[in-house]
Amino acid sequence: MKEADCYDKSTNGVVVMVEPYSQTEQIQQVVYRILDANLDRAREGLRIIEEWCRFGLNNAQLAAQCKKERQEIAHWHTAELRAARNTPGDPGTDLTHPQEEQRTSIKSLLQANFCRVQEALRVLEEYSKLYNPNMGKACKQMRYRIYTLESTLMGRHRQQLLLRSRLYLVTSPGDKLLETVEAALKGGLTLVQYRDKTADDTVRLQQAKKLRQLCHDYGAIFLVNDRLDLALAVDADGVHLGQQDLPIAIARELLGPHRLIGRSTTKAAEMQAAIAEGADYVGVGPVYETPTKEGKAAAGLEYVSYAAKNCSIPWFAIGGIDPNNVNEVIDAGANRVAVVRSLMQAEQPTLVTQFFLSQLISRMKPELGMSYV
């Protein structure tokens, strides 16, 4: 600010008055306020993520990485920038959106805060070019590191949710697709695969987007049957591949290291091959003959028992399983089952989901080489 002498006629004397900021100084103060607000935003978002890494995952390495990034941001949060803060005069303090007022799951909470941090860093990267170019460069590199952290953390979240999932719904076409899936999600379902072999791609894309959002809202995993392109287009959590589909190695290259890949298996050799190729889980079946796999002979309960003794990754018994025979499958060694008609054609999908889960959880057995989170 500048000082200037001015004659005050009311007192017949000279007083000292303060001139307003020059235009350049006004712009500078606005930039300082933008930088201050976004430094705060980035630090707050990182702290929320850090707390989940520390207390939710008990992962010291990820928590330490978050803390390191917070300290990096704090390094640039100077007293000069803090001094420009004007919270009472900030019109943004009263702005809100209904989506900000609730979170439906840990997954949605984490994703919201990753977006918050990344957006703040992008703002910092641009506006700091008017303040300190080195700060802009640092924020750019940090933004890339946060992208990697998000991929790693969300991948770990998917793996943990997969381990905890007991019931797996594979959809079939129908007029009540979304209604049925949501009803099952309300009953505690945490894993959904979108499967439609006959619809046009435009229909598949539309349905997959809606299902992906629905699963996201309920904190469930969403997978796509066969189609890697569709999975990528809707940002699905992964794909499920049949024996005649792409090799797992190629799918992994396209999807990246943190999305889930499942493989259907009908016998021991296929199971061991899927494990060796890096599948995250396998389907074991068909346990009983089913119209979903028309013409395919049942693998039987013997294959379920084999999986219980020999499968070192999560596996789901599948094929003709319903409320009347699920306990036979559990007795054979299954802790997880996948179903199609039992839920998609159920009059009360929520209650059927709860029944399946109650039977699976109450009779759960220790698994080969796995620990539960």
Automatic annotation (TrEMBL):
<feature type="binding site">
    <location>
        <begin position="290"/>
        <end position="292"/>
    </location>
    <ligand>
        <name>2-[(2R,5Z)-2-carboxy-4-methylthiazol-5(2H)-ylidene]ethyl phosphate</name>
    </ligand>
</feature>
<keyword id="KW-0479">Metal-binding</keyword>
<feature type="binding site">
    <location>
        <position position="264"/>
    </location>
    <ligand>
        <name>4-amino-2-methyl-5-(diphosphooxymethyl)pyrimidine</name>
    </ligand>
</feature>
<dbReference type="InterPro" id="IPR022998">
    <property type="entry name" value="ThiamineP_synth_TenI"/>
</dbReference>
<dbReference type="GO" id="GO:0004789">
    <property type="term" value="F:thiamine-phosphate diphosphorylase activity"/>
</dbReference>
<dbReference type="Pfam" id="PF02581">
    <property type="entry name" value="TMP-TENI"/>
</dbReference>
<feature type="binding site">
    <location>
        <position position="226"/>
    </location>
    <ligand>
        <name>Mg(2+)</name>
    </ligand>
</feature>
<dbReference type="GO" id="GO:0005737">
    <property type="term" value="C:cytoplasm"/>
</dbReference>
<dbReference type="GO" id="GO:0000287">
    <property type="term" value="F:magnesium ion binding"/>
</dbReference>
<feature type="binding site">
    <location>
        <position position="225"/>
    </location>
    <ligand>
        <name>4-amino-2-methyl-5-(diphosphooxymethyl)pyrimidine</name>
    </ligand>
</feature>
<feature type="binding site">
    <location>
        <begin position="193"/>
        <end position="197"/>
    </location>
    <ligand>
        <name>4-amino-2-methyl-5-(diphosphooxymethyl)pyrimidine</name>
    </ligand>
</feature>
<dbReference type="InterPro" id="IPR036206">
    <property type="entry name" value="ThiamineP_synth_sf"/>
</dbReference>
<feature type="domain" description="Thiamine phosphate synthase/TenI">
    <location>
        <begin position="167"/>
        <end position="342"/>
    </location>
</feature>
<dbReference type="InterPro" id="IPR013785">
    <property type="entry name" value="Aldolase_TIM"/>
</dbReference>
<protein>
    <recommendedName>
        <fullName>Thiamine-phosphate synthase</fullName>
        <ecNumber>2.5.1.3</ecNumber>
    </recommendedName>
</protein>
<feature type="binding site">
    <location>
        <position position="245"/>
    </location>
    <ligand>
        <name>Mg(2+)</name>
    </ligand>
</feature>
<dbReference type="GO" id="GO:0009229">
    <property type="term" value="P:thiamine diphosphate biosynthetic process"/>
</dbReference>
<feature type="region of interest" description="Unknown">
    <location>
        <begin position="1"/>
        <end position="145"/>
    </location>
</feature>
<feature type="binding site">
    <location>
        <position position="293"/>
    </location>
    <ligand>
        <name>4-amino-2-methyl-5-(diphosphooxymethyl)pyrimidine</name>
    </ligand>
</feature>
<feature type="binding site">
    <location>
        <position position="320"/>
    </location>
    <ligand>
        <name>2-[(2R,5Z)-2-carboxy-4-methylthiazol-5(2H)-ylidene]ethyl phosphate</name>
    </ligand>
</feature>
<dbReference type="InterPro" id="IPR016229">
    <property type="entry name" value="TMP_synthase_cyanobac_bac"/>
</dbReference>
<keyword id="KW-0808">Transferase</keyword>
<comment type="similarity">
    <text>Belongs to the thiamine-phosphate synthase family.</text>
</comment>
<dbReference type="Pfam" id="PF17792">
    <property type="entry name" value="ThiD2"/>
</dbReference>
<comment type="function">
    <text>Condenses 4-methyl-5-(beta-hydroxyethyl)thiazole monophosphate (THZ-P) and 2-methyl-4-amino-5-hydroxymethyl pyrimidine pyrophosphate (HMP-PP) to form thiamine monophosphate (TMP).</text>
</comment>
<feature type="region of interest" description="Thiamine-phosphate synthase">
    <location>
        <begin position="146"/>
        <end position="373"/>
    </location>
</feature>
<dbReference type="InterPro" id="IPR041397">
    <property type="entry name" value="ThiD2"/>
</dbReference>
<comment type="pathway">
    <text>Cofactor biosynthesis; thiamine diphosphate biosynthesis; thiamine phosphate from 4-amino-2-methyl-5-diphosphomethylpyrimidine and 4-methyl-5-(2-phosphoethyl)-thiazole: step 1/1.</text>
</comment>
<keyword id="KW-0784">Thiamine biosynthesis</keyword>
<dbReference type="InterPro" id="IPR034291">
    <property type="entry name" value="TMP_synthase"/>
</dbReference>
<feature type="domain" description="ThiD2">
    <location>
        <begin position="33"/>
        <end position="151"/>
    </location>
</feature>
<dbReference type="GO" id="GO:0009228">
    <property type="term" value="P:thiamine biosynthetic process"/>
</dbReference>
<keyword id="KW-0460">Magnesium</keyword>
